[in-house]
């Protein structure tokens, strides 16, 4: 008898990510993460795979990223020494890097840099590129009262904020901070600051003596998507502006091709405005001439199919010579595609379910493959070298069954169901409609722990990709200035369709849940229909007005999604705010929100919760402390489990009528 | 002696007084003084005893955490709360308790008298061992409370209260404590929110107001009578029929109570008496239109109430027909008062003066203490000159002008318009540290009590449904009046500042006029949707202020939100907000700040950690000084 997947099963799962080839391609390093014993965090360790198989390399639980050195060793940031601890206690900003040799031996301290580095990548020889978080208020080494200033920076009695936005989800308060590029010379032992004090760098890539980066300088107001493209000559230290920041062209990233030009992803927004997806261009660095790559527009879609059984990243894109490889979301599968020098498209790998990250070295290929019945595995040169799925061997896993349909507009809407555990066709079962966030993301068939838990709990789990979702191009994603119309219609039609094709679903025992845009939609749904017996609205949006003036992306997202803003058209933003319809809601609703969520700030969940309580509708708000918008995917394991249990208990109480304790 | 100018740091040099209580024999008055303390970055409070026979004041208790004093009936000793004994090292946060000490006026040190296993907010002696206690209590039994760590559970509104933090399923309860056996029991039901509570003259019963809060707090409250001997509570008036507020006794057979008329958010409560033997109540004192601050019953069966009469504190004695039979005016405001056998003592301030203890002799207030005299005499305090003008609606508006220190006729000075909170409170002529500090920096400081303020009756306070209308007009006309009367005030270098409702008004002002060159908007309101749907009083009080709700009246809500006009604002504004302010939550300051900033207007927001709506009055001293400095520096940049 197989075991049921529960909330706590989360602690048994291992999540593989970040596959990276050694410089000679003979070894592949990757990261494996899992909940730690206390459930208060995650341990992340490096593994090595080669022809002999895969095995762990580090055991400290603190190695979460990989940078291969030209000598074939691996650098990763960590804090292990007494020196590290002393610096941390004094609230100094620093990053210590440790180095481990895959051939043997424990990791040793490599070097410590006097700034907070996010990522490190090797450039050439002894040069490394680092992106650091710098703080304009950080005291100089010789500043008076330095210790007190550091203490105050770490624990300010108040925050003197004069930038906007001043916080960022997952980062915290960002006023006075910038993302700064440094080049560290390991041989010489010093860092060179590449970007200026007020410059905020986004993507950066170095090759052949030049560092290309996207970003912009700002003083008080962050410029949103507007950014310039710059080239820094490493030898001379000179920076050239290739493209000035402009409203007409939004540059995402750029890479130098072997043929001498640049390939870049940018959007002019000519057809779909601010929300138009980026397209591939080539740019002549001398003439600044921008040319569409290929006869047909190529819009890389590097979004991952939604899942909570994933922890860690990895490469989504790599330019080798003139050939660009990237992970493309096609419909609901992540496929590895290859665009050649002239824009010819080749689909190289399309595994059954999809891939999460990849790396290429010469003729060698490695990737993280996702599955419907287990957590991701590492595939090296065509062979699966890990077996993390073994953790689920004794569990009853429900495989997703495709129940897509055609909507009234003639669009194919992809959708699935998971059958409840112990499914018996003669019985009837409650069902939960899961709604993804974004809205420009997509569900697929990747293993989703939360959904499996509900299936194990005896529910049908229904999920689809309504209009607005990703993977189907800009026209399908276009719900801009149409929130709460065609997206809502598709979701309700999907439920109708599921009820039709699966008579075992009890239409009087339906629940609805979703996070972020999915939380917005859950809030919208309860104000427009009583068909659901319970709802769980997570990290949601209740009012586009408060969202515009509190979210870290409020100023830009409102404009890109609604083609409007509060001061341009309050009436329209109020009309599309779920809060407007809260007085009609009758569905008992559980709200999940996190107090460090700066994407959809807690003001949203609180307004909607208060509106329901004001109208005597059963509601409960769980406010997670210290968590952010990513609670369900990378929050503290104990909190992720609490969140799942709260949802289970709520649905049990209001849908199936059980009292769970 | 050369007088010093008022500085931000002066908050460490003067005290605020409270808790005046008269001894049973009428000879003594005990009161507390609280002062900012630099070492602890907190407050030190101590007790003073005024001896009416010797006509002198001496220090009674001085541990630094002594307050809440009252006289023990039988012995005349002073009982007070103190935290002079630090909690044991292994004490758990749930092991909350309040320690009561006893000290005799005629000598000896204080000794621990009894401990109550709760956070006591008020205590009244019933017998020599039995006490009526008000304390916050959990509404759910321990095994029903949320157990999982890492998150808060909210399932009612409000779920947080300014100054108390998360309050979900906690209630202000009425309890009995017996010192004999240490027994402590709640006499109100678990979900009951107790309002006012008072002992009957014969000490056999307790009258109290309140209602059960189930799901959502509503504007309702009943009247109840608790019999101490039988431990039975009788509901005299159902909470569904009234919103009873204060409740006390004229005599053992007659209860006094008042009730909010519930037709708006500004009208003063109506007075009633309940005749116990006849199970009926009737309206009394229909001629009165006043808002009680404090209330004390005296032995002669009169109820003494303090209230604002214009900007002056008045104590009125009310008989069982609700008529005011005598009244006494304080020099300025009244913070606390007590009455015993016709003797009245109060803590209050005076025009340009700081707080002291006063008694009334032959109807006149006589100052009895000199706690703040040293500070007052050694510092240059700029006089607050009263002005009254008639606004364009024919209503008299009272205000004051403080001239800058170093004022010289013929020169020009920048000015600051201060706007009080409330709106139903009053400014007075008393010494106000913040205003004096800015006057010392060379500013005119001027302030008024526009319509909406307290002290002038319900009609004057009526800005329900009109926020940003007649109140705004009065404040602008007052500013015009000050400019007219003070040619040295530079109308091109004026700043505006205010907190709470004053922050609402500051936000409103910058969206409607450019006449001010800088603004400091504190613990403000910017968006009535978020104000009503996130704050501790939002969904019942502010909603009533709008006279509609966000669904039936979204236009009204938006029209009255300063955020609506933020795109018109040009005034550089600094926002002050505290992250534990649950009265006007930080969403307010944040929305207005972001709106200005994205529109290219210079703005700054100072978010204070672990402070609440009372930052400027009882926040950590260092933070109070940071606040004054941030605003002062802002004005210096834009007005000087």
* Rg value of chain B: 25 Å
Number of helices of chain A: 12
Inertia-based shape of chain A: globular
Let me know the number of strands of chain B: 41
* Low-confidence blocks of residues of chain B: none
Strand order of the largest sheet of chain B: 34-35-37-36-38-39-40-41
The number of helical runs of chain B is 10
Please identify the structural class of chain B as seen in this structure.
alpha+beta
Main structural class of chain A: alpha+beta
CATH uppermost class of one domain in chain B: Alpha Beta
User: Mean pLDDT across all residues of chain B, rounded?
Assistant: 97
β-strand number of chain A = 41
* DSSP helix fraction of chain A: 10-25%
Give me the CATH architecture of one domain in chain B, please. 3-Layer(aba) Sandwich
Main-sheet strand order of chain A equals 32-35-37-36-38-39-40-41
Question: What would you note in describing this structure?
Answer:
The complex is a heterodimer of chains A (661) and B (640). Chain A is built from 12 helices and 41 strands. Chain A has 661 residues and is α+β, with helices and mostly antiparallel strands. Among the domains of chain A are: 90-246, no CATH class; 401-655, 3-Layer(aba) Sandwich (Rossmann fold). An 8-stranded mixed sheet of chain A has the order 32-35-37-36-38-39-40-41, with helices on both faces. In chain A, strand 7 (95-100) and strand 8 form a beta hairpin. Chain A is globular, with a radius of gyration of 25 Å. The two termini of chain A are 24 Å apart. Chain B is of the alpha+beta class. Among the domains of chain B are: 118-143 and 153-284, Methylamine Dehydrogenase, Chain H (7 Propeller), CATH 2.130.10.10; 382-639, Rossmann fold (3-Layer(aba) Sandwich). Helix content of chain B is 15%, strand content 39%. In chain B, strands 34-35-37-36-38-39-40-41 form an 8-stranded mixed sheet, sandwiched between helices. In chain B, helix 5 packs antiparallel against helix 6. The relative contact order of chain B is 0.09. The mean pLDDT of chain B is 97. The chains are: A alpha+beta (661), B alpha+beta (640). Chains A and B meet through strand 11, helix 10, strand 41 and helix 12 of A and strand 12, helix 5, helix 8, strand 41 and helix 10 of B.
